[in-house]
Design brief:
By secondary structure, this protein is of the alpha+beta class. The chain is 21% helix and 35% strand. The protein has a single domain, classed as Alpha-Beta Plaits. It has a 5-stranded mixed beta sheet. The longest helix has 12 residues. The termini are far apart.
Length: 109
């Protein structure tokens, strides 16, 4: 997994048990293969809340909220989604957003 250094709050988060909100952009072969549904299934299993959507350039954008150590596991489990070929994962901690559950949204294009 390649995590870009956008902020000082990336994988290896400073407080493992802190609840945080991450914006995760995943590129590779991740559209039209059920990746968003797989992402939702993993998130629901781990108790992660948020949303996932396709982006115009072929990437997927995930906004996820949970404990930092759970989000690390969540990201690592995404590599197991069938037919997905993940080339790059970029994470950035963002301002707190509250979600009731994890939803698949229509893309931004």
């Amino acid at each position: 997994m390649q995590v870009s250094p956008d902020t000082s709050q990336n994988a290896g988060f400073s407080q493992k048990n802190a609840t945080i909100t991450l914006q995760i952009e995943i590129s590779g072969h991740v559209q039209n293969i059920g990746f968003r549904a797989c992402t939702r299934k993993i998130a629901t299993h781990l108790g992660v809340t948020g949303e996932v959507m396709n982006l115009a350039g072929g990437a997927v954008l995930i906004t996820a909220r949970g404990e930092a150590f759970v989000l690390e596991k969540f990201i690592s489990m995404l590599y197991g989604c069938p037919r997905a070929v993940i080339r790059n994962v970029t994470t950035k901690e963002v301002d707190t957003r509250l979600f009731n559950d994890f939803v698949v949204k229509k893309g931004l294009f």
